[in-house]
Amino acid sequence: MLTRPRPRQARPDVDPIHIPATAQTSPTFDVGQHVGVQLRQYIWVPGTIVEAEYNTQYGCVLYTIQYVAANGCRLKERFLPKDVRDYE
Question: Would you state the pLDDT for residue 14?
Fold first, then answer.
């Protein structure tokens, strides 16, 4: 006997109003500011913000950061806000 699957019900203990928004629409860092950028887990290197622009695919600001790689060449890559912090 074929039966229809029951529609998913929202969990009563999770209220969508209390879920924090992760979207960042305005940059928290300025162009030209020195920041730390996370390349891998526990690996942070100093860099400089070259550009900050809103990306609709990710729904947040992406930072273009220039940093010096381990082999000595300068690289420009884009990073999410979670991978950028104040340079200490």
Answer: 45
